[in-house]
Each structure stands twice: as C-alpha cells, then as structure tokens.
Write a sequence for this structure.
C-alpha cells in the first residue's frame, strides 16, 4: 500500500505534540528495543504534511543516540528523492516537557486501507521453520520466505532496501526491522505485500560525537568508517564478510541480475545532498544538527554513493 507523496517539513515547522491525544487503545508502539509512544494527530493538523486523525509513533532517543532523530528524518528525505518507500518522519517535541523526538507516520491503518496489518519478518521466519538470529541473518533466507508467501516484487523491494541501507549506512535491518503488510482475502488466506522500509535511525554516523567529527570527516576517516559498515545479514547465515554494505549490494546485483534497478536509486546529486543538510543546520531544534555534522554526513553520503556506483558498474 504505497505511501502518498507528501509535502516536506519546513525548517520552521517542528511539530509540537502539545494537545495531541495519546492512542487509548495502543499507547505504546510495536516491538523494539525502546518504548515508543503513540499519538493521534488532531483532525485539523497543524501542518500540511500531517494526516488528521491518523496514528503517529513518537520516538525520543537520548544521550549518545539522540542524533538518531536526525538520521530518521534525513533518511526519509533522501528516500523521497530517490524513490524508496519509507514512512514519513518529522522533527517533533513531546507534550509537557518539550522533549525532542522524531514523529513517524503509521504506514498502515489509514482511513482508506483499514484492513492491513503489520507482520514482522521474524514472525514468518519462525512460523516457516527458518533459523533466526537477530545478530546475523541471511538475505537468501529472507528472499526464500518472500517467495514462499508469493509476495509480489519482493526481489525488487530487497534490491531497493539494501541499496538504501548501504547509502545511509544503516546497520539495523534485523528481522524485527522489516516485514509485510497482510490483508485477509475472501478465502481467509492472508495476502502479503512488503511493508515500507521502516526503522532507519541507526545510520549516518549518528554515534559519532561532536568532538570526533573533524577527525572522522577527512577522506581517510570517511573511507575507514564506510569499510566497517555491515548490513544486519550476510548473503547466507553467519557469512559476515558478504554482509559488508557495498559487497552485499554487489553480490545481490550479480546473482539477481538487478543492477539497473539498484543503480536507479543512486541518482542523487551533490547539490541535492548539500541542500538537504543545509536545511537541517538552519532548523531550530533542541538537538542541534551542526555544520560540522553536515560536512561529515555530506562526505559520507557522497563517498558511499560513489562506491556503490563503482561496485555496480552504474
């Protein structure tokens, strides 16, 4: 169920959740490492990029993980530009204390698609008897599971997802961080499609502190950082070497003969990257996105993009 195109959040449009009602039925979010609060957008939303009466997840990472707020928002904005389906994510502040966080739109349960529900990958892997390991999974197993459920265009979805994860340096695509949307058919057998690419905050070097950005922003520093980046799964279970971000994309493109689709997701220019990050720098928000961080993320994205283009022969 594709997410409708949405106007972007402006630099002076941080969402205050003051007055938003918590979801009485489901006050906390789906499975995950951290508790997430659920709020209902007012029927008359404060900004045009929000949906009145719809559910939103509010995440409040803190301490060394606070920059994940920016990672979620930037990942969504990048995805909009390259055509990968990612749940809309916006800067927001909590009711009461004004705590900073990221507001993420529920990608199911819209008024026009009430019957769909989310099924996490791990649920179906376990139900089908696949060995599951949240620390090191298998892309082959993921693909075979999708084939078993007759999921349309699953190969294309995985191609887009791993190229997107490699571009932003996401290391957290374990089997609770991808899944299906399921709908009961007339014969009561569920119909599955791939869910949008959710949970993208563990990316873009969020863990690097402000005091270390300068040393990490050199060409050598960025190259070392990229070389260490791994997907949460290899080509097969336990094969860590094949899970390196660029290497897994290269392997999948070769095995599935799908490099054209993957290359299509790398068409983002230097100027587009820099304009996006400049907007982040000038946005007034309790968690600052500094010029130093913008420089680091800019170099990181451009070098990752170029490495992927070279590896795939785009």
């Amino acid at each position: 169920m594709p997410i409708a195109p949405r106007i972007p959040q402006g630099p002076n449009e941080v969402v205050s959740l003051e007055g938003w009602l918590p979801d009485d039925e489901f006050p906390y979010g789906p499975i995950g490492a951290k508790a997430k609060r659920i709020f209902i957008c007012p029927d008359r939303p404060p900004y045009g990029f929000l949906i009145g009466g719809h559910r939103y997840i509010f995440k409040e990472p803190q301490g060394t993980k606070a920059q994940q707020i920016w990672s979620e928002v930037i990942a969504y904005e990048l995805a909009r530009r390259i055509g990968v389906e990612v749940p809309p994510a916006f800067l927001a502040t909590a009711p009461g204390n004004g705590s900073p966080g990221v507001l993420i739109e529920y990608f199911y349960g819209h008024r026009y698609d009430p019957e769909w529900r989310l099924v996490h990958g791990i649920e179906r892997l376990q139900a089908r008897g696949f060995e599951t390991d949240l620390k090191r999974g298998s892309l082959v197993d993921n693909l075979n599971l999708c084939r078993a459920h007759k999921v349309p265009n699953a190969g294309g979805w995985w191609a887009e997802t791993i190229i997107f994860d490699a571009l932003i340096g996401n290391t957290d695509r374990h089997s609770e961080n991808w899944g299906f949307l399921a709908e009961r058919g007339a014969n009561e057998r569920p119909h599955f499609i791939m869910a949008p690419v959710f949970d993208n905050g563990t990316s873009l070097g969020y863990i690097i502190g402000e005091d270390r950005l300068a040393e990490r922003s050199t060409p050598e520093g960025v190259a070392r950082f990229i070389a260490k980046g791994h997907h949460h799964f290899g080509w097969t279970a336990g094969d860590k070497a094949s899970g390196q971000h660029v290497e897994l994309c290269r392997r999948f493109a070769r095995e599935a003969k799908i490099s054209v689709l993957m290359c299509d997701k790398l068409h983002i220019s230097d100027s587009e990257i820099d304009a996006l990050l400049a907007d982040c720098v000038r946005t007034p928000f309790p968690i600052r996105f500094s010029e130093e961080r913008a420089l680091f993320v800019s170099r990181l994205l451009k070098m990752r993009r170029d490495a992927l283009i070279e590896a795939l022969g785009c």
In short: DSSP finds ten helices and eleven strands in the chain. Residues 291-312 form the longest helix (22 residues).
